[in-house]
Amino acid sequence: MQIDNETRILGSIAGNQSNLGTTMHNAVYEAMGLNCVYLALNVKNVKNAVEGLRALNFRGSAVSMPHKQGVMKYLNEINPIAKKIGAVNTILNENGILTGYNSDWTGAIDALKEKTNLENKKVALIGAGGAARAIAYGLKKSKSKVVIFNRTVEKAKELAKEFDLEFGGNIENFKKIQDYDILINATSIGFYPQSNKSIIEKDQLKENKIVMDIVFKPLETLLLRYAKSKNCITIPGYRMLIYQALFQIKLWTNKKAPFEVMEKALLTVLK
Ligand code: ATR
Question: Residue 175: its pLDDT value, please?
Fold first, then answer.
């Protein structure tokens, strides 16, 4: 990678960085011959970080936990979809005007569409946090029939009402539904190092369904292992992670990045 005075700088604003984003993004820039570099920024004060992007003329930034909501008030504009979802995970800088976008919803939908069409499919969505909100938006747009479950039922109720979806109750209530096509875990349960946990127990899973987990570490979560043993089609979280990053690259560079290059780079870190 050659860095010179023309190099465009991309950042990643997060509270707790890993080398995942830098590995995925820089591998793709290198392969595409783009004069861009992606830097992991450990951020405590998000206001100062946003001012820094502007002052140093970053082309954009990814935004991760815990700043996806907090960053919004410091941007010049929020794309209407990100506003509806209520979270920004991508910033684009156009001549000092910073606009917030959300690529999680499209990442999730692209990952699902590798395995299924979504129109009229009955989806059990577990979770009501930022990721679940993005997925709920994408599923609604794709005309799926979504039922939402969450530990904190009030949040699920609110989300269901806001996006005109069905409210399922708490996670225990998931046991009672018989007729879903797709199950999505949009909670953080099962994330490394708590890889021995699954939001749904094996005996509650039905045979021959589609199961997606947003958890990308480990590559195969306990939930997905259970699902495989029930003959389900599984969609690991890393596919959503890649698709949402490809959307970011398109936004920043106007170029379509190769999925396989990013996948190869990401798997070297996650394996
Ligand atoms: P994100 O932006 O990644 O979605 P979040 O907004 O903190 O993160 O949401 C985390 C989700 O995981 C929520 O649905 C949360 O449930 P609550 O709304 O009840 O907090 C869910 N979650 C986290 N820990 C959980 C646990 N131990 N059991 C069940 N659900 C859990």
Answer: 85
Residue 154 corresponds to which tokens in the numbers above?
A: 């009030």
CA 56 to chain centre: 27
- Sheet with strand 166-169: strands edge to edge: 166-169, 145-149, 122-126, 182-185, 210-213, 233-235
**Which residue shows structure tokens 């070297």?**
268
Ligand 1 pocket check for 152: Cβ under 6 Å: yes
187 Cβ inside 6 Å of ligand 1 = yes
Catalytic positions = 68
What Rg do the C-alpha atoms of the chain give, in angstroms?
19
- Which pLDDT tens digit goes with each residue over 117-136? 999 999 999 999 999 999 99
Q: Could you read off the pLDDT of 161-176 as tens digits, one per residue? A: 999 999 999 999 998 8
Residue 86 CB less than 6 A away from ligand 1: no
> How do residues 63-86 score in pLDDT, each as one tens digit?
999 999 999 999 999 999 999 999
* Residue nearest atom 26 of ligand 1, based on CA coordinates: 189
Q: Which atom of ligand 1 is nearest to the CA of 133?
A: 4
Band of residue 177 on the pLDDT scale cut at 50, 70, 90 = confident
What is the bridge-based pairing of β-strands 90-94 and 97-101? Answer: antiparallel
| pTM, to two decimals | 0.96
Distance CA 60, CA 30 (A): 18
Q: Is 20 in the pocket of ligand 1 (CB under 6 A)?
A: no
